[in-house]
Amino acid sequence: MRRSPWICALCAAGVLAAAGFAPAPVGAAGPAASLVLINGRIYTMDAARPWAQALAVRGQRIAAVGSDAEVLRFKGAATRVIDLHGGFLLPGFIDSHVHFFDGGRYLTNVALRDATTMAEVAHRVAEFAALHPTDDWIEGEGWSYGYPDLPNGEFHKEDLDRVSGERPVFLDSSMAHAAWVNSAALRRAGITRDTPNPAGGEIVRGADGEATGWLKEEAAIRLVQAKIPPPTPAASVAALTAAIRAANRVGLTRVDSAGGDFEFLPQLASLERHGALTLRISIADWINPPALTRHELAILETARRRYHGALLSCCVAKFLMDGVIESHTAFLPGGYADQPAVTGMHFFEREPYQASVQSLYRRHFQIYTHAIGDGAIKLALDAYAAAQARGTPAEQAAARNRIEHMEAPDAADLPRFAELGVIASMQPLMIYPRDEWKGMEGLWEQYAGAKFLPTAFPIRSLLDTHATVAFGTDWPVVQLNPLLGIRNAVLRQSLDGRPTGGYVPAQRIGVGEALRAYTLSAAYASRVERNEGSIEVGKFADVVLLSKNLLEIPPDAIPSAEVLMTVVGGNIVYRKL
Q1: CATH of range 99-225; options 3.40.710.10, 3.40.190.10, 1.10.3210.10, 3.10.310.70
Q2: Burial class (CB in 10 A: 0-12, 13-18, 19+), 240
Q3: pLDDT at res. 433
């Protein structure tokens, strides 16, 4: 196992600072700065200078970091100077896993994440239908598996039929691995009692053999979703613009799309040309089972050549290996605790998946693999190891392939992340999701079983083996706000303090570690750490100003901090009035 060099350096810098030794001021000679920020508490994530008071920006990049007096030397007649009044400034947050267009659509469709009962879900669908009488389809997202008034623990088309009239309804689940539709939607899709389950999906049926309207996993969901007309160009741009503004407001300066945004590359490029793309975004494209095709590879290579700017870049290859534990579709070869005969799903077989990974690896594409269950995680690690075994040391170091979610690994596989240089891309707000998915606390343990508890969302264990952990949200699956994820990684508790002592408290981490996972480690996971993730001379001026110093307040108070300003490439893209 190898320790990441910048972690060692950061530890050493902390020792020097504690002893009273500060490095020399850092700056770059040249024209006057365009922007100077002074009188702040700047947490740089730079091992050589962990703290500073001021910084200067020249164009898009940081020109100087140091004290007020040192940085004000870069002030010219046209320089804009902003007094931070002691505010907490740090590198801009990076969300390592979003579905950006879906997030924008969530803001304008039937939003159900905070609904607490079936009755409330029905009311919101009815209300949306009344407010949008000309919409052909009614779409929404965020329903939960744990409503107290859920009849027989099942989702049925009749509950939606009563409030939707003759219009089709499509509601994605809170975890996006199941959908709930009404009778009209099933008719549009041509789904009858005789429609077979597609490979890798399930059409849930009642005792009478009829489809209930509950669809599990992408293959089944797509039977209906494919019938929904694509959004108009104007609607697409509106959704993307809403998502951009939402990201700016919560201090995000970069997001990594993990699927669902590839088709919107032209719209994003247009927004970039017109100055409306005010954060950095990398785009992933889905690789469909059973394996990567030459056609898919050609599409990836064409897009990579076309989209490679400072704000918009492409492409990452994304595999969906399994489902989620709450749907019994994550791949647990040993069976589920509540249904021992059920092992979940894996959507790629070992050999074609390994061949796909090898082909992408040879062409230097980064790879994301959604893997939640121990069986899926092992398949991904094995494929990455096989590909890297044939590469040069430089290729191995540059690969930085990722496993997304990583919820229920085999403990024996944890050291392999650091050994292989595989990134664990995790979403801490999903730990004990009492705040995000109503009524679902306890389901993960009930279904997966107590044997997985020691390594449930194993952030501490991964860091202790010197693996790189990058944080994100999976937005719109959970809220986009990084402060909520930081708090949950530290406390592993809901906002009302459940469970007492934290959920698997041995996996808690410190505030500084959580900040790193949302900044420098996330930049490393995106292969952009030379330009982003820390406040250093020469890097992009991507920073966020908070109203409170997260390192000095109780962890439970972290969400009370406000984002006061977000800066991307030296441009102020959000400022709280």
Answers
A1: 3.10.310.70
A2: buried
A3: 85
Report d(CA 30, CA 61) in Å as an integer.
12
Task: Map residue 43 onto helix, strand or coil.
Answer: strand
Dist. CA 325–CA 142, nearest whole Å: 16
CA 175-181-184 angle, 5° bins: 160
Are 326 and 433 in contact by the 8 Å Cβ rule? The answer is no
Q: Which residues of 402-427 are buried (b: 16+ CB within 10 A; e: fewer)?
A: bbbbbbbbbeebbbbbbebbbbbbbb
Give, in order, the Cα–Cα distances in Å from 62 to each of 40, 69, 399, 515: 15, 16, 28, 20
Contacts of 3 (CB under 8 A, 6+ apart): 466
Written as six digits, the tokens of 83 are: 């007094």
**Structure tokens of 201?**
């999906």
State the DSSP code for 560.
G
Amino acid identity, residue 488? N
**Which sign does the torsion angle of CA 209, 211, 214, 220 carry?**
positive
**What pLDDT, on the 0 to 100 scale, is given for residue 26?**
61
* Tokens found for residue 447: 């279904």
- pLDDT below 70 — which residues of the chain? 1-29
Checking phi first, is residue 460 left (phi over 0); if not, alpha (psi -120 to 50) or beta? Answer: alpha
Alpha-carbon distance 496 to 75, whole Å?
A: 47
What is the pTM for the complete model shown?
0.89
| CATH class of the domain defined by 236-532 | alpha beta
Tell me the per-residue pLDDT of 99-149, one tens digit each, with 9 for 90 and over.
999 999 999 899 998 898 889 999 999 999 999 999 999 999 988 887 888
Question: Is 99-225's fold the same as 236-532's?
Answer: no
Residue type, 450: A
Burial of 159 (0-12, 13-18, 19+ CB in 10 A): buried
- How far apart CA 421 and CA 405 sit, in angstroms, is 16
CA-wise closest residue to 217 among 240, 236, 231, 198:
198
What 3-state class would DSSP assign to 335? Answer: coil
Domain ranges of the chain: 99-225, 236-532
CA neighbor of 534 nearest in space, from 519, 512, 522: 519
Residue 28 has a pLDDT of: 64
Give strand pairing partners of 255. 95, 281
Taking each helix axis from N to C end, the angle separating 118-131 and 157-164, rounded to the nearest 10 degrees, works out to 40
Spatial distance between the Cα atoms of 467 and 50, rounded to a whole number of angstroms: 22
pLDDT of residue 443: 87
How many other CB atoms are there within 10 angstroms of residue 368's CB atom? Answer: 27
Give residue 533's Cα distance to chain centre: 16
